[in-house]
Every structure is written in C-alpha cells, then in structure tokens.
Structure prediction request, 198 residues.
Amino acid sequence: MNNLIKIFGNPAERTSPGVWAWLRESKVASVAWLAVRVWVGIMWIQAGVAKVWGAENPSFLHNNGAGVAGFAAHGAAAYSWWASIMHSFVVPNASWIAVLVAFGELAIGIGLAFGFLTRIAAVASLALLFTYVMSGTASVCAFYALCAIIVLATWRTSTWIGVDGLIAGYRQRRHPVAPVATPPVVEAVSVPELVSVG
Prediction:
C-alpha cells in the first residue's frame, strides 16, 4: 500500500481545483444552480401534471395503467434482464406503478422547483430517469439526469435559495455553531535536574 501511495499520492491529501470549489460554494454560482434546479423541476411538474390532470391521465390513473403496461410490454429494453423485469413485474402491476410514476414525477418536480428535500428529489429523479433509459426511452432523459447530477454535486449552493435554504438558515440562527476554540499553547517549562549527592 505504501508503494501505491508513493506512486499515486495519498487520496486524502488531494485538493480540488479552485474553480471547482468556487462553483460549489459561491453565492454567485448559486444563481446558476438555482436556474438549473428550477428548470428541471418545472419540466418534471409538466410531465406529472400531464399524467395526473392532463392528456395522459387516462393512460396512467385510469384503464389499469395502460400507458405503463403498453410501454413496458412494447418498449425496447436496453438489456434482456431488464426486459424480463418489465414483462414479469411491471406489466402485471401496471395499475399501481402508473399512479406511482404520475405522482412521483409531480413530487420530484415540486421538490426541485421549490428546493424542498432537494437531494432526495434529485436522487429520485435519477432513479426514475434510469428506469426510462433502461426501458428504451432516450429523449431528454440524459439531459435531465445531467441537471440532477449538477444539483446533487452543488447541493449546498443549489439549495441555498429555496425551502431547504430557509430551513438551514433557521437552524443556523436557532443553534449557532460555536467557533472552534484553539487549545492554549503550553510553553515548555524547564525543570532543574535533581542531582543526588552522596
């Protein structure tokens, strides 16, 4: 192990480039991350509203989830093992999975747009996008996934302006963090040497 550390260096001692730290921690950059977070949230809200109240409602909340069943049965899955999951699990359970997808998209969108439980919403977004991509739908999934990854990577600043930021600010005001006290410097005192006579 020491030979590897000599060759590659100690990973615990690596530092990030300054621009990366600035992008993650800057209040100026937080405005850009806010825009990314809100935009992808609005896209999820639009998809969820279409399924809950809009044109896609009959395929998701009625007719035993016909939209999900048709998609799972006739989609071009990326792998054969995923196709077997789609045919053996999703198609027979399409009615409740369709409700979960419709309200899940809406909840993810609201969470991202308002910055509430943002990290959970971003991870749920990635999970749902993963199932879509694995099921053969490319469309805008990769771009939405990139946005969700950006929100996760910059979560301190991407959630600064939002409900999560308000909650964090309230916690900071209510329970201020005491500054870390440095231990006092103890000066060495020289002790005279005892000499025995005799």
The chain has one domain: 29-174. DSSP finds eleven helices and no strands in the chain. The mean pLDDT is 80. The longest helix spans residues 27-52.
